[in-house]
Amino acid sequence: MGSHGSAVAVPPGRLAVPSPPRPPDLLRRMTTPLRRTPGRFTAILAGVVVLGLLTGVVAFVGVRQRADLVRGVTARSGELAVAAQSLYRALSDADATAASAFLSNGLEPPALRDRYQRDLADAASALTVVSAAISDDSRGAAAVARITARLPVYSGLVETARTYNRQGLPLGVAYLQEASGLMRDELLPAAQELYGTASTELDEARDRAAGFPWVAVLLAVLTLAALVLTQVHLTRRTNRLLNVGLLVGTGATILLVAWLTGSALVAAGNLRDSRDEGSAQVNLLAEARIAGLQARADEALTLVARGNGTAFEENYGVVMEQLAGADGSGGLLARAREAAPDDTTRQAVEAAIARSKEWSAAHRNVRTLDDSGEYAKAVAATVGTGEQTTAAIFNQFDEALALAITHNGDRFEREAVSAGRALTGVDIGIVGLSLVLLVGAAVGMQRRIVEYR
Amino acid sequence: MRHQHLAGRLLAGVLVVVATVGLAGCGTDDQALPDNQIGADPPRPVGMQDPAVIPTGPAASSGSCNPRASLRPSGALPRPRQMPSGTAMAKIVQRGRLIVGVDQNNYQFGFRDPLTGQLTGFDVDIAREIARGLFGDPGRIQFRAISSADRITVVKDGTVDMVVRTMTMNCERWQEVNFSTEYFTAGQRVLVTRGSGVQAIDDLRGKKVCAAAGSTSIRNIAEKGTVPVSVVNWTDCLVLLQQNQVVAVSTDDSILVGLAAQDPNTEVVGPRFSDEPYGVAISRESPELVQFVNGVLAKIRSDGTWTRLYTRWLTSLGPAPAPPVARYRD
Known about the structure:
The structure holds two protein chains of two kinds.
Chain A: H1 12-15, H2 23-35, H3 37-102, H4 110-133, H5 139-166, H6 171-210, H7 214-238, H8 244-304, H9 310-324, H10 331-339, H11 343-371, H12 375-383, H13 390-422, H14 426-452
Helix pairs in contact in A: 3-4, 3-6, 3-7, 3-8, 3-13, 3-14, 4-5, 5-6, 6-8, 7-8, 8-9, 8-10, 8-13, 8-14, 9-10, 10-11, 11-12, 11-13
Chain B: H1 2-25, E1 69-70, H2 88-95, E2 98-102, E3 105-106, E4 110-112, E5 119-120, H3 122-135, E6 141-145, H4 151-156, E7 162-163, H5 171-174, E8 178-179, E9 184-186, E10 188-193, E11 208-212, H6 216-223, E12 227-231, H7 234-242, E13 248-252, H8 253-260, E14 266-269, E15 276-278, E16 281-282, H9 287-302, H10 305-313, E17 327-328
Parallel strand pairs in B: 1-17, 2-6, 2-7, 11-12, 11-13
Antiparallel strand pairs in B: 3-4, 4-5, 7-16, 8-16, 9-15, 10-13, 10-14
């Protein structure tokens, strides 16, 4: 220490040279203070402070953005996906219900009428949510516009069909088929596209939210390295082993790295679970439920068409195969059972599989009756009140899947909320730790610098 | 002094970075509203084709035979339930019911009464009269709703005893099945909105006219210079007419009468420009059943039943004409 005592500050006279210096001269003069120990210490302090500040700011902004993204996953993308799915389901249900209601000789059962109106109301409210949440430039926005424009046309056709049906005119059937065609050719594809867009947006939001904060962690590690090197340097220059300020700063930096990494990993884990055990399940189950609704609509429309329903019956076969496979134990339902994350889901899906098998058997009975001219009995077996009607079986099927969807939707929400919780307080912690780091480094270095004065 | 300068500059740099990052987070949202123009096209019935595909292939040959000529009844009608043994009628009586293939989609000819769910209409009532002749009871009958394409198959394979389903008798079909005498004379006409000023098919040159896909009606209206639009079911044509997507519907008046009956704002106009004699199709293996049915038809022509049925179902075509005259081969 004593040996360095002679090398104090730069003589003031040399700083005041008036003539414009040549470049090498300037460089030399600018770096001269750094070659002296206190100047070097000051520069090191400045470097550490800048690094620490940068780390704090980047980590803070990063965590705030990440918390916003996680909140977006639940509050915006999650809600959007739920609303889009609800819209798709409500429209499919309206199609199936309108056709079933039509079978009952002009006077539709009040329960079916209520269900149809409930579907339209659900679709409208889901549509308002979706149109508020979907990004303006996405393909989803065009789908929203198409659905908004065509839904009133659809309901108008259904009401016209209903009016003619109450008068006992076959024209009602033609209007119902036109309505169903509009639903299947325009509304449902748009709703499906919308659901796809919403699911993609959710996945993207989740990926962004689950990304690792590389820059912040890298900066923090650099700060840490700088602090360690500073201490090594100081120890060599001053023969003092410990510098409390720098040690505290180092500790704060280690904590900061650990907290930043840990919170990011936990949040990413929760988000991954929210997809694998939540929304991926919901997607699969919703797909199965909508396939069921379409098969139900086809079943009813085959009878409504009175002998001209071959196309609907063929479509019923196609959709049922997607739903339950060619032998009744494959398809979407089998996939949902394999992927079921817990017992509640598995039991619900197994119930749905059992119902789908009963349904297929009951449907064959309906077709046999209708094909042998027993139209009234076929209708009774389809929309009647008994336990063995396809209506009763279908309703149990639909309810089982609805239960599983709600259950997995809750799961998604829980995991996404946990992800948000993992990040709670991290921003404030970063500010605190950064302050400790800066103050520790500044105090620690300042002591040494002062010793040279 | 010098060190403070350095630190100050560095601090300023950091502040600039912070400010930039912060501002990027809250960019102003001054985007224009989305411009989603949606067409206001009317909805289309499933399977509608505009313009329609005109069916190719030869037109139904008319020359080689007289499609109206059937088998003359032998003597007086047997009394109900007392059919000559060994005949097709005796088998039907033994079975206890007559099985008839009918339409369930042709309003006024063969359709389900929406209130009762029962099949009814002009064709159905003709079939009931045949059941009355066999059993003395028009209710001893079982209907099979069949599609137009299945009419010949179900007669040939014995699924039904006979088909009464707006079936035009022509020489090609005579090769496959036997027909009774003519019980209704249909012909292609035009259905338009009341007050449209259209008097006949010739007024529709260059206008959109609807007919069912693959039908001979499509070919006929294309030949008349209209723009054919095709649909899957005939009722879809009325939907298109009501939605102003076509100016007219043109096909056999037996179908038009069912459409006109569902919308009082439409009317069937113009003369017939095709000739479609309808007969009951029966298997070639039981000519005695053809003779029996011809006997029943002769009875209902003469005792006023035919006129009563026409008046019940077909007044949209105007007042009942005289029944079609029975023609026989000998």
